[in-house]
Each structure stands twice: as structure tokens, then as C-alpha cells.
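Repro case for the chain-ordering regression, as requested:
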Amino acid sequence: MPNLEIPILETQKLSVSFDNQEILKDVSFSVNEGDVLAIIGPNGAGKTVFFRALLGLIPFDGGIKWREDARIGYVPQKLFEKAELPLTVKEFFVLKSKNLFFKDNQLLETITHELKAVGLKPEILGQRLANLSRGQFQKILIAWAILKHPNVLLFDEPTAGVDVAGEENIYNLLHKLQDERGMTVLIISHDLNIVYRYADKVLCLNKENLCFGEPKKALTSEQIEKLYGESAFHQHHDHG
Amino acid sequence: MAKALFINITIMDSQFLIIFISGIFAALSASFLGAFIVVKRMALVGDVLSHVALPGIGLALLFGINPIFGAAVFLVAAAFGTWLIEKRTMLPPDAIIGAFFTATLALGVLLVPNHELFESMFGNLFAVDYYDAVIIIVASIIIFLLTLILSRRLTLSIAAPDLAKSIGAKPDMAYLCFLLLFALSIAMGIKLIGSVLMGALTILPATSARNIAWSLKSFLSFSVVLGILMTSIGLVIANIFNFPPGPAVILSGIVFFFVSLFFKKS
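-- result from build under test --
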């Protein structure tokens, strides 16, 4: 049973600046265990920076409080320099091992299980990471993140490169993970439809926290307009 | 030719044998670490870092200390400086390092006495005595083993520092350890290969290996095997024809590189 008394994550006046330029300002919100929280906002709104702060990858001001039992899996938008390293999929998974050098049988056994969970066949293990399609690679990153069973998943959605069918697939997959494993999912999304369909809560970011709450209540047309600007709002509606 | 080589090897004196073995061990650790330098896109840094050894050698000669130690101190300091500059400034290290490391080469040329200059820059087979060989072999084995133990963390820190941090690893520390090990491995080959060309010994095997590798394991293995091969062939050629060992080793390495192009994987 999820523990709903204490939120699994809570931030208070979270601010991040680089070179005296404020990227995030006073962002406060909380997430309960098992929730799907969508983070939306225009390009350059600081969404990825927000994740990186939550992960403790960059310095920040204010408070970030993860509950003690939170174990975080992170799916970045992209991996840097992956083409430089001739890594196979299997080798990429093994890098997650706590064993510095020796063979990690326990880890090897769970890899196939997690591959199945994201809808990939074990044959992919022998393939080069650089040769995968964008969609396959995304799934590999998810499988990597859920290896060793974290209870929170931070998912930074790729802006481009995954086709619509592939996207649909990934959302179903995230939904399944949340359902079956009771995972808390924080997702940076660019698609408002997805937010309405899958998210329990939404956080609108544009440097500041502009709205927070249930999507149907928090995402009024005024809010969306304020967030993306008027033209972007119409664009979103055309697609919807 | 092969027969002549064979005869030469069989009758070579014990001094060359010691030099040859220490060269192989220096190549072992240098080419292994060089593989990480290449995938981190720091080939230029790796190449030029070895220049920093020259003023260290000069000062060591001045004070009558073993030049290997002088080189090691300067290289480790430069590696630490590289790490700090990158961490503090967020600047791409290439420009600063290109300028700074080359300046140390200039300083080194002034510091090293004239009659020692050529061999400090391009290596000298017989500058390696029995005592040096022991240092080189033992240190290279330790450097190689430490890198092997660190290799998973290193790879993850290089490929995806954010993922590394997200699982509680410290990519910053892994990177620092790596640079220090790299600097030490350069110091081990400096007497034999020389300060100008030792950097090339670290990156040449890896660039060739990168062409033919299909996985991380094959990449690291090829890098080490090619590093040992080019060093052994280069040293034997240097011994037979009385060449300075640095150029002989690097030129035999470039032959492997051209051969690797024919096996290039897409």
C-alpha cells in the first residue's frame, strides 16, 4: 500500500541560477506516492534543469525533500557522446552494476525481465547502442532506469525523433509501470493531450511555478495562454 | 628480414630485454587509459599532456633526481589542473590546454641541458636502467589494475555523467582518478618514448581500435593489444637500426592505424 501521509517528494522555493541568470524561481509543490505528475512549459522554461536539480546534479537554493524510501530512476532526454563509445546494449546495462569489476549475475538475470517489461526482445542485448532506432533507444533508457526497481521515475520526454506510434507506446508503457509497480512518475511532456489522459497532477513551469494541481482544474485556457503565449495556445488546439 | 629480426631478438643482450619488457608494460597501461581519453574526445589533451613532462625532466636532471619522478610530479599536477579548470570554468579545456601545455614544452626546452634534450623529447632506449625498469613494470601493473577496477564507473561517467550521478556514483571523482592514472601512465613511458611522442602512444592504439571494435570489451582489448604490438615492433626496429625509440614506436603505430581503416565498422 502506498504511504500517502508523507509526500514522496516535496520542494520549497526551489530556485536555480546559472551565471546570475535565474532559470527557476521559487518552485514549490509536492507529489504523492503512485502519482503521475506532468511538467509542462515552453522551450527554455527550465524543465530539464528542474529535473537535474531534483536529482542533485546541479546546485540549487531552497528545499528538495525526497522521502527516505525514495529510489529514483532517471530517463534523460538523450545520452551524450553515445556514438563515441562502442557500447553494446548489454554492456550499457552492466555499467549500472554496483560491482566495480566482477560479474554481476543478479543484475544479468534481471536485465531480460526489464527488457520484457518495456517490450523489447533479449536479442537486442548484443546490438550496438549507436545502431538502435530512437524509439528502441528510448525504451532501453527506460529499462535501464527501472532496473533494480526504483519507486520513482523521472522521465524527460524527447522533443523530437520518436514517431507518433512510438510515443503512444511509451506512454502506455509508463502507465503500465505506474499501474503494476505503483511507481511515482514525473514526466516532462510537450503534449497536452498526454497530460489530460495520463497525469494525476500537472505542474506548469516557466521559470516560476505558474500552476499546479489536477490537469482539468489547473490547466484553464488562461493558464495555457499565459504559459505558452497566445499563438502557441492555438497551435496546441489545432493539433488536439 | 624476418630471419634477421629473429636472430637479432635471440641474441639481444639482457639489457635490451629489460628495456623491451618495461616498454611493453608502459604500453599496456598507456594504451588502456588512452582508450578512455579517445572516447571522452580528449585526444588532443592526451596528446599534448605529455609535453608537460619536459620541464619536470629538466628540473630532475638539475637536482640529480630520477627524471621519471620529475616527469610524474609535473604530469600529475597538470592533470589535476586540467580537472580543476574544466570543473571551475565550464570552458572546453582544449584551448587553455593547447596553449598552457605547449608553453611547458617551451620552458622544458630551456631547462633541459642541451645534450639531454633530444633524448628527453624523443626517447632513448638505453636511458632505461634496471632500477627504472622495475619502477615502470610495477607502477604500470598497478595503474592498469586500478583502471580495470574503475572501468565501469569511468565508462558510465564518460558516456552519461547524469546517469552516473543518478545512481550515486561520483563522475567527478572518477574523472579525476582517471586523469591522475593517465598522467602517471605517461610518466612511465616518458624515458623510453620521449615527452613529445609519449602522448601519441596513448591515443594511437585507441583510435585504431575504435575503427575495428564492435563493443566496449573489444575496443579496450584491441587498444591494449595494438599498444603492445606497436611498442614491441618499434623498440625492436629502434634497436636494430639505432633509431630513437619514440619515432620508431609511433610510426609503427600509424601503420596499424592505416590497416585498421580497412576493417572500419560503420
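Ordering looks correct now. The first helix of chain A runs from residue 47 to 54.
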